[in-house]
Amino acid sequence: MSTHQNSGHAPVAPTVDHRTAVAAESARFVAAVQDADPAAAVPSCPGWTLADLIRHTGSVQRWFSVLLRARIQEPPRTREVDLMLPEQEDGYAGWLAESATVAEGVFAATDPNLPMWAWGADQHARFWVRRMLFETLLHRMDAELALGRRPVVERALAVDGIDEFLVNLPFAGFFAPKVANLRGPDRTILFRTTDGDDAWRVRLRPDGFGLDTALTAASTADVTVRGSAADLLLLVYGRLTCEGDAFAREGDEQLLADWFANSAF
After folding, report:
1. Quick one: fold of 18-152?
2. Is the dihedral of CA 101, 103, 104, 106 positive or negative?
3. Which residue of 66, 158, 221, 248 has the fewest C-beta atoms within 10 A of its own C-beta?
4. In this structure, are residues 127 and 118 in contact, taking their beta carbons and an 8 Å threshold?
5. How far apart are the C-alpha atoms of 115 and 124, rounded to whole Å?
6. What confidence tens digit (pLDDT) does each residue in 97-140 have?
């Protein structure tokens, strides 16, 4: 049984090489959009086009690369970075590939265990690599959904992505202010995978929320959601709803509704 906790050190699934996965997910993203219309709408990111999605993902990769290169030890004062965007949107796919190459070079020169400032739980360089991975993976899936394809994600990556999201969510208030509403008188939400034995139990307290530790197969909660790791990843990121056939749920439906209304990342 996997156990997960909200502490100063974010657990990382040992089967996931985040650096290699950034390159692989970037290549998948590029392949998906290479011949697509940049003006195509992205329904899972309302108001965005494929061009917006690509630009955002490449910008995140280049921005995080700047932070890693600088070994920042405090919150950055500016987000200005030369993105080197091509003038024409039909060049964005190639630019995204170059963004991944920039990141790969920075990874090679950076010890992942180097202490660094990070907005989330893990105050090391590896936080930014892991975060970059799931920004890239999620938006690759958004692109595929926009193009009418069913996204596929390896189970180990999906499990790590759920963990990364839930571990860091309590720290995301400065850009996701609704998380401040995630409070309660000791109420719990349990997410369980149906294609493995992974589980995460979120506990809402009067002063906030976090993840419980030491879960067992018998652990219960006020509301439980079960689904495959890949579907749960899409669920926590709001790309699926728990009312779909992909999930089994039991318990306090209002608690679950409140969670999803306030946990958007």
Report:
1. Four Helix Bundle (Hemerythrin (Met), subunit A) (1.20.120)
2. positive
3. 248
4. yes
5. 4
6. 999 999 999 999 999 999 999 999 999 999 999 999 999 999 99
